[in-house]
Amino acid sequence: MILYFSGTGNSEYVAKRIAQKTEDEVLNLFDRLRNDDVSEIQSDKPWVIVAPTYAWQMPHIVRDWLKRAQLTGDPRVYFVLTCGTSIGGAGAFAKAVASEMGKTYKGTAPVVMPENYIAIFNTPGQEKAMEIVDRAEEKIDRIAETINEGAYLEELGGGRLPSMVMNWGFHKFIIADRKFRTNENCTSCGQCVKVCPTENIYLDSPEGTKRHPVWSGRCIHCMACINRCPFRAIEYGSSTESKERYRCPKTV
Ligand SMILES: Cc1cc2nc3c(=O)[nH]c(=O)nc-3n(C[C@H](O)[C@H](O)[C@H](O)COP(=O)(O)O)c2cc1C
Asked: Does residue 210 share a domain with residue 226?
């Protein structure tokens, strides 16, 4: 069973491609994460967790859910982390998560996909993004083959300590939603409310005709709201004003 979390579609694309190549089922964790639903899921095939990399680890929302979720049936778990450049030492942390899940760890594979962290970095345009996704496909297919063979995924030697420090700094100093704001393009459509995995966004009480999104402090910086707003109405400070919005070109 392929379980995935995805802010902007990269991990969704990878998960669905692995599911197709392994002839396995795929499940989007969005509702389960949002509702903190850890009820039983059963699978007779290995568990494959696909998620983006956040500061050289899997997102904590996924990690914390996996530790509590009842995943019964097959005892093996694979991790596939999409990233813009590197997953650092995320494998060491995934191994620890597998152990807390009571599962047999079968390795962690990185898949380089387009960068989506628009709050900090530049995101590629559609053409460049398509090139990166095309390049990733061979790697995704190799991962699926490894899973079909029941073999271990490659293990990269990224250090645990640098990942720990980087991830700590990210949670302490970077994740915050105070800089999100809307511009005059906002139509109060509520798409940002729908795509937020932590129910962090609500539309404020109507005053006149317009209601505006309000971010309420539980943001995980997945960048779904800003990248998936259909009217380009969300900014993060002023640095995003000139940046391309990103959505995986093959999941749109
Ligand atoms: C909060 C945040 C942190 C990120 N940290 C990393 C990182 O440590 N290394 C990296 O290569 N890419 C990093 N990225 C880029 C994403 O991991 C990458 O674009 C991923 O494929 C996005 O997946 P998604 O579209 O499924 O959400 C980060 C992105 C975000 C939003």
From this structure: yes
Q: How far is CA 179 from CA 52, 85, 125, 218, 221, in A?
A: 22, 25, 23, 13, 11
Closest ligand 1 atom to Cα of 9: 25
- How confident is the model over 55-82, as pLDDT tens digits? 999 999 999 999 999 999 999 999 999 9
Q: Ligand 1 pocket test: which of 2, 29, 30, 53 has the largest number of ligand atoms within 8 Å of its C-beta? A: 53
Which residues does ligand 1 sit against, CB inside 6 Å?
6-11, 52-56, 82-86, 113, 115-117, 221-223, 248
Q: Are residues 124 and 50 in the same domain?
A: yes
Do residues 87 and 110 lie in contact, with contact meaning Cβ atoms separated by under 8 Å? Answer: yes
Are both 159 and 221 inside the same structural domain?
no
Find, among 9, 13, 3, the residue nearest to 223 by Cα. Answer: 9
Angle subtended at Cα 111 by Cα 119 and Cα 115, rounded to the nearest 5 degrees:
20
Residue type, position 187, single letter: T
Give pLDDT tens digits for 10-49: 999 999 999 999 999 999 999 999 999 999 999 999 999 9
